[in-house]
Amino acid sequence: MSRHTLAPAPSSSGTLPGLVVASFGRHCLVESPNGERRICHPRGKKSQVVVGDRVAWLPTGDEGSVERVDARRNLFYRQDEMRTKSFAANLDQILVLIAADPEFSERQLARALIAAEAEGIAVLIVLNKSDLQPAFDIAWTRLESYRRMGATVLPLRLKGASAAGTEEGLDTLQLHLADKTTLVLGPSGAGKSTLVNRLVPHAKALTGEISRALNSGKHTTTSTTWYWVDEAHSSALIDSPGFQEFGLNHIEPMQLAHLMPDLRATLGQCRFYNCTHLHEPGCAVMAQVEGLDPREQQKSISENRYRIYTELFAELSERRSY
User: How far is CA 315 from CA 94, 263, 274, 302, in A?
Assistant: First the structure.
């Protein structure tokens, strides 16, 4: 798993620079600037690295040890009552791939966007299966509130191995991926594997190679994996295993409105400085929810988005009362 180029010079401490391109349990795969990859083990029982980390490592025989993890620009993760699950670090953006069918969960979409906003990471929403009608038009309408609050939403039609027709929207999507490190998220059935394999033709073979290296031939769930999209190594995709739930236990209830752009636009206009936007008189957020004030023609917050806010606020408040 290497390219035949000059090896990087070690630092004064003897460590070498590297990039974590895959991880599983206590193992990770580190890529050197010359393209060489080898299994490394983080030092210390509590030490944990994630894909996208820049590290300093030392060779130990055929493997290596991670001596230091460089400061991260950001870390995208989810947290529930049981554990914290980190996806990747040092991201430029997150691509959330959803589909016209099966119907996507707006609550899961909103949670992913809130977690990204908390880390200052841009989000790209891509709606796949634009050839399915009327399902696509219905799904596109459901995303109107996200476009209205400034999110980039792109249509896409991927041609699968057995599907007829042509692909649409892929060229536009690739422009948004150029020169960026992008984490790809998506529920089952959205076409995430098809997209990754389309953008990175060697992805399947590379995944198998990494799986064998990290897991010593044992059958395990797929690890989070970094793929270079171009020969110049300026654009990268990070593919991660799917998930059923997206916990936000690391978010304080009073933070929520600040992390939802449509609600945030009216903050500071409420009568009370500590307004929860749930029941207080003079709440500017509630006044902007569709249907609450018949005198207003254009509302900035959809009823569904406000419902998601109230449910999340209650969920996070309840867990902090234990």
Answer: 25, 18, 19, 20
